[in-house]
Amino acid sequence: MTTKLQSLREWVEQVADLTRPDQIYWCDGSEAENQRFTAAMCDSGDLLPLNQETYPNCYLHRSDPSDVARVEHLTFICTDDEEDVGPNNLWMSPADGHAKMDALFDGCMQGRTMYVIPYCMGPLDSPYARCGVEITDSPYVVVNMRIMTRMGASALARIEQDGNFVKGLHSTGELDPERRFILHFPAELEIQSYGSGYGGNALLGKKCHALRIASWQARQEGWLAEHMLIVGLESPEGETHYVACAFPSACGKTNLAMLIPPESQQGWKVWTLGDDIAWLHLDENGQMRAINPEAGYFGVVPGTNAKTNKNAFDLITRDTIFTNVATTADNEPWWEDKKEGTPATDWLGRPFDAGNGPAAHPNSRFTASAVNNPCYSSLAEAPDGVPISALVFGGRRKELAPLVYEAKNWRHGVLVGAGVASETTAAATGAVGVVRRDPMAMKPFCGYNFADYWNHWLSFAERSENLPRIFHVNWFRQDSEGNFLWPGFGENLRVLRWIIDRCEHRVDAIETPIGLLPKKDNIDIVDLEIDEAALHALLSVNLEQWKAEMESVGEYLSSFGARLPVELQLEHDEVMQALREAAG
Ligand code: OXD
Ligand code: MN
Question: Which residues does ligand 1 sit against, CB inside 6 Å?
Answer without folding.
Answer: 70, 200, 249, 276, 298, 427
